[in-house]
Amino acid sequence: MGRIHDKILHAVNQQSYQPMKARILARRLGLAGGAYGEFRTALNDLVQQGRIEINNSQAIRKSGAKPSLKGTYRTMSSGGGFVKPSPVDGVASPEIRIFPENSNNAANGDLVAIQILRRGNADRPPTGQIISVMERKSHQFVGTYWEKAGEGFVKVDGAVFSQSIVIGDPTTKNVKPGDKVVFDMIRFPSPEERGEGVITELLGPQGDPGVETLAIIRSYNLPDVFPPDVLDEAHHVAENFSEQDFDGRVDYTKHTVVTVDPIDAKDFDDAVQVELDPASGHWTLWVHIADVAHFVKQGGALDREARSRATSIYLPGKVIPMICANRNH
Questions:
Q1: Which of 24, 233, 266, 272 is deepest in the core (most CB within 10 A)?
Q2: What is the DSSP letter of 88?
Q3: Which segments within the chain are labelled E, that is strand?
Q4: What pLDDT digit, counting tens, does each position of 68-86 carry?
Q5: What global pTM score does this model have?
């Protein structure tokens, strides 16, 4: 911050200061005449930063205590991120840009309290700083293990934390430098010290395609295993399925249908058919979709788990399905 910025702040924050207009303050600071342009530039900077205010009478006054907002922090791979403030009285606010130096070691998905540093306009979003982490979304993180001077560290994947995390006793998992690992954070990092974690799972060597896919699954806590009751229901449905059961259904099995899928597709869940109507000479397009509702009953374990997952997730060489299917039947 420049000398003129400091002079303005020093004057405005004096206990005896009374709000006054810009030209009066400039004269009192000896910044009238040729220096007035620099004075106005510094003044605008301080207003944008929220450190001073201009009231309805165009008088300059010191900034009051800024109320904090709370919202969910979303990180960016380039560093920093955005906070989506929680609605106030049902009114949504624009996302607040958080630069890396103002992130206060918050992680993706954390509920945070923020203060606005600069108001936004049509060309740029408002910016702010995270003043505290109110609730951590997760204590589990993924990264690459490395060592220095006999100590173990993990560089967390993505631009989450500015420094690597100290790992206590990595030998318990036979971890080697360059391995991808999952660890639990037992002390989050602060401006004064590194975070500390304990390795809970060894994934394998960094760069291996299967390991990197598994790292994505663990990083986003994706549900790659179905609960026992879901597996039991899927097995029961498959065991009791009969191709002759048309109760409440229409039989279209004699139609010739075509799927538009690559040869390595994992799910053939829709198909098409065209048919000429001799009477009108028009073509009819049929679209056939998998009859999921015949197998997944509302309120059951399969239905509950599918609602929780919401969608199938397609990763390189692996699919995490929304619906548990017993593919042996």
A1: 233
A2: B
A3: 20-21, 52-54, 59-62, 69-75, 81-85, 96-98, 111-118, 127-135, 140-148, 151-156, 165-167, 179-187, 196-205, 270-276, 283-289, 313-315, 318-320
A4: 788 999 988 777 899 988 8
A5: 0.60
